Amino acid sequence: MTEKIKICDRTFEIMIPASQIDSAVTAVAERMNRDYTDDDRVILLGVLNGSFMFLSDLVRRLNFRVEICFVKLSSYEGVASTGVVKDLIGFNCPIEGRNVVIVEDIVDTGNSIHHMLNSLNNRGAKSIKVCTLFFKPELYVGSAEIHYAAMNIGNDFIVGYGLDYNEFGRELPDIYVTRDE
Ligand code: IMP
Ligand code: MG
After folding, report:
1. Closest of 64, 20, 17 to residue 44, by C-alpha
2. Residue nearest ligand 1's atom 13 by CA
3. Whose CA is closest to 62, among 41, 34, 40?
4. Sign, Cα dihedral of 68, 74, 79, 82
5. Residues with Cβ < 8 Å from 121, sequence gap 6 or more?
6. What is the phi-psi region of residue 156: left when phi exceeds 0, alpha when psi lies from -120 to 50, beta otherwise?
7. Which residues are catalytic?
8. How confident is the model at residue 132 (pLDDT cuts 50, 70, 90)?
9. pLDDT at 179
10. What is the predicted pLDDT for the residue at 1?
11. Which of 81, 86, 174 to mutate to test the pocket of ligand 1 (most atoms within 8 A of CB)?
């Protein structure tokens, strides 16, 4: 029987077990290991809160040196994007001449990534790429390339492994999906 859990008013069932997330993180780290070396002076720019678990597992599998910094954005209320991206903590790391990789938990409409790329523009980064644990290609309306997507999913609302429903569920090691309307 599928394990079901209740978070606030919704029922969630397991969709992706931790072992499968682990393999996807390893695979995406291997792709990055082929693309970068120590000489590339990479900055990983994690987007809080959702990316904290993914980023911490990812960095331990990278075999090139990185610097890590974070920004904090908010665009979701409940299970839907508001379309308005708020900067809760801005970024203050010098990126001139650096290879930046934005690390997201999930790219959905692409509004957050678009917002991030706008704020990074004209700051003289050598390159800017996007790495995300989950990508929802059916909902993506952006034009920016998503270079490293660990896993593609459909039009589902998921929680766990950093992702939340109204701030709950981030600590779960597996990914759960809600089928409630
Ligand atoms: P976007 O701006 O529409 O691409 O949405 C990106 C942000 O919305 C992500 O970084 C998450 O914080 C949140 N988000 C999008 N989809 C989900 C989901 O299925 N579960 C939890 N959070 C999500
Ligand atoms: Mg997020």
Report:
1. 64
2. 76
3. 34
4. negative
5. none
6. beta
7. 108
8. very high
9. 86
10. 56
11. 81
Q: In this structure, are residues 48 and 105 in contact, taking their beta carbons and an 8 Å threshold?
A: no
Q: Is the CB of 109 under 6 A from ligand 1?
A: yes
What lies within 8 Å, CB to CB, of 34 at 6+ separation is none
Asked if residue 25 has pLDDT above 80, the reply is: yes
Is the separation of the CB atoms in 28 and 130 below 8 Å? no
Q: Is the CB of 112 under 6 A from ligand 1?
A: yes
For ligand 1, atom 16: residue with the closest CA: 108
* CA pseudo-torsion sign 78, 81, 86, 89: positive
| Residue 21 φ then ψ, to 5° | -65, -45
Contact present, 100 and 121 (Cβ < 8 Å): no
CA dihedral 136, 141, 143, 149 (to 10 degrees): -10
The residues that bridge with 7 in the sheet, in sequence order, are 10
Q: Which residues contact 171 (CB under 8 A, 6 or more apart)?
A: none
Token couple for 115: 């917002």
Q: Would the CB of 158 count as within 6 Å of ligand 1?
A: yes
Tokens linked to 20: 């499968």
